[in-house]
Amino acid sequence: QLQFVESGGGLVQPGGSLKLSCAASGSIFSIYAMGWYRQAPGKQRELVARITSGGSTNYADSVKGRFTISRDNAKKTVYLQMNSLKPEDTAVYYCKVPGGGDYWGQGTQVTVSS
What is the DSSP string of 65-85? Predict the structure, then answer.
């Protein structure tokens, strides 16, 4: 099974930017679609962005126009560029193969606060 390690989270002010990374290991990365998910305290985990093996992307309405998902198959890494961050973006962010098994990493904390 694929294993993922998320990194790049931190504390940023509203309107700021942050770029998350998700490094994969344990399988052939390039053939899989990848997704970024997030879970805020007291809320259910939600799919934020998705990218197919061919590079097609989809975004949740709440982040459309602000977030960009990308991938580097040579590095077996998927990225999430987050711009114009809002306090409601505060959450733990995870990456996973959409529709894959229920295998979640530790995630990376993103906190947007003044």
Answer: TTEEEEEETTTTEEEEEE-S-
